[in-house]
Design brief:
Layout (H helix, E strand, L loop, with lengths): L2 H12 L11 H11 L4 H14 L3 H6 L2 H8 L6 H16 L8 H4 L7 H12 L8 H10 L13 H7 L5 H14 L18 H4 L16 E12 L2 E6 L9 E2 L1 E4 L5 H10 L6 E12 L3 E11 L8 E3 L14 H8 L8
Parallel strand pairs: 1-6
Antiparallel strand pairs: 1-2, 1-4, 2-3, 2-7, 5-6
Helix pairs in contact: 1-11, 2-3, 2-8, 8-11, 9-11
Bound molecules: iron/sulfur cluster (SF4).
The site of iron/sulfur cluster has 15 residues, from α9 and α12.
Length: 345
Amino acid sequence: MSFSTDLLRWYDRCARALPWRGERDPYRVWLSEIMLQQTQAETVKGYYARFLAAFPDVAALARADEQSVLKLWEGLGYYSRARNLHTAAMIVAADMGGAFPTTAEGLRRLPGIGPYAANAIASIAYGEPVPALDGNQARVLSRVLAWEDVIRTPFDLLSPALELMDRDRPGDYNQALMDLGAGICTPRAPGCGSCPVAGHCRAFGDDAAQDYPHKPAPAIKKQQDWTILLMLVDGRLLVRRRPKGLLGGLYEFVAVDGRFDNPASLADALKGRGFEDVRLIRPLPASKHVFTHLVWQMRGWLAQCGNVPEEYTVVDPPHLKALPFPSALRAYRKIAEDLDEACKF
Ligand code: SF4
């Protein structure tokens, strides 16, 4: 029996029951694949259902405003996925008559669809025999093949992956490898004893599953210091939409780059940024957020000022819930939402 036959037999018996399983509609397959990037399937389930309830098809998503899309994405992270999803929907609706490209190559031309997502969507929705090579699939294949080279990108394994894959059921084959990587051939403690492809696995035969994949040395994450201010003007909070780039389009509080151990120097920095009559009321707890390549170390202050600088708007603390904020600011948003009765003090 071949590798793919054993894998698919197991998949037919043990596939995870997920809301997008069995789905061939390219819009739904696309949505699930984009949400699943960097995110656990369990987390995606609720977001997927709410997103589809709000935007049941590509035309509905194309008509939506970006803020509504980001609001439904709130907490899922990697917000460029949501912005790209929205832009791609507008392109499909306006330039492609509402129909998605039907090949991986065509799908890759849409914003936010890289080689992995293109292959996943094309194999699942259209049956194109292309491997959905992500970190999970690369890990499984590196063990099955006892791949000795350092893997810099999962597509380093494209050639053997194409050889191994099932040509009759490419979508199921890719999803079977996703399930195997998520549930059995896990990074730290692979369950080789219950693995359906153990008989094909060279790493298992060598009792060396943990030795694969061979990864490049991890990059050191850049550290950034921020001072976050819950800045009040007449009992209302200053917020603004972040410009393009990291977390672009999401809301934030007043944020000054750098760490200020001395309140006087923080007040000076705020003055230089157009805030008048600043009064620092009390420090807030520190918070940290780890991105893929970056760590934010945040210190906070509750403060008030006498003006609303350009770019900012004011909002009542109870209304913060309606605005999309990044998870990175969750701790400060929670404090802001709990500020007493529109911040009387
Ligand atoms: Fe992974 Fe072990 Fe299965 Fe090999 S036998 S694919 S290492 S779980």
